[in-house]
Amino acid sequence: MALPGPVNRYLLLMAQEHLEFRLPEIKSLLSLFGGQFTNSQETYGKSPFWILSIPSEDIARNLMKRTVCAKSIFELWGHGKSPEELYSSLRNYPVEKMALEFLPFEGKVNLKKPQHIFSILEDYGLDPNCIPENPHNIYFGRWIADGQRELIESYSVKKRHFIGNTSMDAGLSFIMANHGKVKENDIVFDPFVGTGGLLIASAHFGAYVYGTDIDYNTVHGLGKASRKNQKWRGPDENIRANLRQYGLEKYYLDVLVSDASTPSWRKGTYFDAIITDPPYGIRESTRRTGSQKEIPKGIEKCPESHVPVSLSYHLSDMFFDLLNFAAETLVLGGRLVYWLPVYTPEYTEEMVPWHPCLKLISNCEQKLSGRTSRRLITMEKVKGFENRDQYSHLLSDHFLPYQGHNSFREKYFSGVTKRIAKEEEFSQE
User: Fold this and answer.
1) How much is the pTM?
2) Between 177 and which of 48, 182, 253, 321 could a Cys-Cys bridge form, CB atoms 3.0 to 4.6 Å apart?
3) Tell me, what's the pLDDT at 306?
4) 427 has pLDDT over 80
5) 397 pairs with which residues across the strands?
């Protein structure tokens, strides 16, 4: 059985975690390094075994220097559904493409310092409770490189110096940076920076990082600590110290106290990527600054001399402000990567915010509960921003459906309340 198509094929062994995020990550990284997915490579499902056509071994190695979704990559020499098919496949693999002479190998085997490592991988399916007697597929190939799975442990939030209630999981932070195609010397911005977890992942890949947040205490590392058995934050608990912890301080530009609803930027394109996790109003409130005139009637106002006040910030307004900001400040080809909370019984793709300057690249779901989830949205800037683009979302069919997510907090806690009530009812029976 000869291998179909081109012979520069590689076997990618994927991690069985964050399944929806794997394909967009690999596609983004291949694009970053000069590779490309073909149509036949679009449907991998949940399988950990992916066969890719990659132009060169250098691109394969660069891919593995970045991915946290893949474990290893092999130059695929042959595969089949049985040992006989595998043998036939190997005999048809071109000799000039092999690192050594044709099988069987001859010469001394050096297990301590091998020049080449060869592996046989067997696929027994995805059901651990129903393992077949014989594998579904058998693969043979030359090991090329491992992925960056160790980053998930070495950058674990549990070991981090400065954290908050919503500090982003290390693995997801690196996935977001990869979806954003972050590379060396890029400038990456997070308008809802929090404790800077997303800046760390981007800085690890050599990008200069910058952020803003409306919370003065978080930006300056003040106030109550988020760790158990610690009352107040220490004097050296801040975002800069987090980057220093990983030897990344040289990539830290600055973090400022600022309101994402009214960014104080000159017109221009500054950022190669905007990577952020806006607040959903669950553990951190969604707030913006405003004036006394905007305070609803019936609520006590501060003295007139106190101009800035804290007001509610609807999710629909927050995300459209974010898209407008990205359209204005991203370079062409730059990417916006952000989390969008959704109430799953009502979710449709039309609810994803839209902008004429931004193209949707990927939309991946992570479950939060039985009725809520968040979706990792990746968009790419495809045209220059014009003033008329600022309000174009009002004419979009997406606008009205998405406004329904302004009540995401109420729907989330409604589901939690019902679940607790059911549990209490069950315990009393």
Assistant:
1) 0.83
2) 182
3) 46
4) no
5) none
